[in-house]
């Protein structure tokens, strides 16, 4: 292993079992995370072939996508959701896989549960039948989403055939201004590089901004790598990583932890590491960022206006016109003052305790605007428990928010939390596609949890910096 290798190639080669005739690598998978939506067909494939799960101890299941976040009485009101829940319960029992169900206080969104339980560790290869598996790259792991047939293959063989992507180093240097959060950083990167800019690449996020981020902030950035077209995104492990993992339930203990930490840190890309591409951003150029269109790349800083058609390449203009029309927004328009109907704080992107703390600071002493439905959905039962211990639930409830159980909720339309008609939603989630939040005409504005909180209070999109203390929050 040479000093010219970046972390991605080091970890890839450590897990490469063979090079296949196709040129793809056969990778050993260190951790396989599963949930109730993409696993039923995979288990059925195993059952049909008389196969077992090869390493059940390397597989962990939870339930999140279809779980209702208000009434969780069984059977669920939604019969399809109840069927999916019953299936994963049956499959995990039969195949010996640990399941974190709604009666387990470790349950939650798969990409929040993995890190908080210490399952996610540097140097691992991690897969899940969910596109936002890139979240786990925040720990210096190679993590990516896979399809249902691949889920079956990993269950049966603990390996996966995959072509090795190139590696792009994405540097953000400087200091973020007050009111600018990790969500703004990732939206800015996607806007600048494009939703297809990362195709064929793994992104290594680097620079002083990422060095100074908490693990939860790093997870937010890596989570949305897929929105920029990248196969995955990661950040090199450092002392922040080690400190986060110490004493986690599935992390090594005692001297074994110290040995593991030393190895984790040795995986980081060295100063002489080589990359296929390098792009550099200045943190000072990033302001609170909000999407205005129907892809995560169609965003602007809150101080800007929606670009006019001639700003975009000719081949993109038909899609831009479609976005203007669908969102009921005009070129040259500011997003400030645009009315919202729904405010959603949660998701695997922004449903962690730090996200709830930021939002609670903004809403304390205020009340949700009339005619706005506002939800706060913790990303896991552990996050919910911590928030209650800190009194955050009371702050949200007194401000007029609905305080929910853990789950994916309004990020996607697989549970009862859905938009109605052409409602406009200020959302801390990761996708603003047409119909993503349950209504074929529903509209989504992606932004940071603090920006969602500000919009909920004012009833319209607001520059969160106007609500912060002079010294910054």
Key descriptive features of the protein:
Aconitase, domain 3, single chain, five-stranded parallel sheet, 473 residues, Aconitase, Domain 2, 3 domains, 32% helix, alpha/beta
Fold and architecture overview:
The protein is globular, with a radius of gyration of 21 Å. The chain has helices at 7-14, 40-49, 79-95, 110-116, 148-157, 182-193, 208-211, 215-223, 239-245, 254-266, 317-327, 347-350, 353-363, 381-389, 392-398, 449-458; strands at 16-19, 25-28, 31-34, 59-62, 98-100, 125-128, 142-145, 159-162, 166-173, 201-206, 232-235, 277-282, 289-291, 299-301, 342-345, 373-376, 402-403, 424-427, 443-446. The chain is built from 16 helices and 19 strands. A five-stranded parallel beta sheet has the order 5-4-3-6-7, with helices on both faces. Strands 17-16-15-18-19 form a five-stranded parallel beta sheet. α2 links the parallel β3 (31-34) and β4. The protein is α/β, with parallel strands linked by helices. α2 (40-49) crosses α5 (148-157) and α6 runs parallel beside α8. The chain folds into three domains: 7-162, Aconitase, domain 3 (2-Layer Sandwich), CATH 3.30.499; 166-245 and 261-285, Aconitase, Domain 2 (3-Layer(aba) Sandwich); 289-461, Aconitase, domain 3, CATH 3.30.499.10. The model has no long low-confidence stretch (mean pLDDT 97).
Report the average pLDDT across residues. 97
Query: How many alpha or pi helices?
Result: 16
CATH homology superfamily of the largest domain: Aconitase, domain 3
Can you tell me the CATH architecture of the largest domain? 2-Layer Sandwich
Structural Rg:
21 Å
